[in-house]
Every structure is written in C-alpha cells, then in structure tokens.
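Researcher: Please predict.
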Amino acid sequence: MRKLLRFLPALLWMSLIYRASATPDLKSVPLAQRLGLLPWELDPATLDLLEVLLRKSAHLLSYALLALLLHWALSALLARPKALYSALGLTLLYALTDEFHQSFVPTREGRLTDVLIDTAGAVIALWLRARSKRTWQ
C-alpha cells in the first residue's frame, strides 16, 4: 500500500495539468503582471513573445516535474532503468492525451509541438536523474 501511495503526488500534479489545459483563454502574462513579475506597460509584440515563452516554459517544467514524480513512484516497484523508461513512456502518454483533451476546450487547441516540448522536459529531467548517483528513498 505504501508503494502505491507514492503515485499520489504524480496524480495530483496530473490533475493540475488537466485543470490548466481545461481553462479557456488561459493567459500567463496577465497573471505574471498581477503577481508583479512583469510590468504593465509592454507593447503588443513583447506581450506576444512573453506569452509564448511563458507557455512553452510551463510545458517544459511541468512535464519535467511529472516525469520525476512518476519515476519516484515507479522506482519503488521497478529496477532503475525500467523505472526511468516507464516514467518517460507514461509522461509521453499523458502529454498526448492532455493535448487531445485540450483540442476540445474552447479557444484552445492540441498541438504536436507541445507534446514534443513536454517530452523534451521529461527527457531532460530523467537524463539528469539518471546521471545522479543518489537513489530514491
């Protein structure tokens, strides 16, 4: 039972990703401005560029974290190499299904490029994890 509870953080993170992708008209720049991270006086071209950068960075980082959470959970059940590859496969599968789901959300669309960015985040995180000598506890 304790080993299965290790999947809880990954499942919670997946639900947050799902919630974000189910939100129509989700814009990251206004949120960053409300938090005081970006100034209010930005020209439209800069706003558009920042929006793309923030969105794609969010994809990369959120799927990197998902891959690490899945690896942590799977490492309690599988040997290290198998846990790494399984975490990558599950992350890719979730990225695909999330983009498919997003294609049904008004004002949103599913994009293969986002799946590639998600996968890149997972690969980078798991590659760094594989290079680590430390084991999960």
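Model: The radius of gyration is 17 Å.
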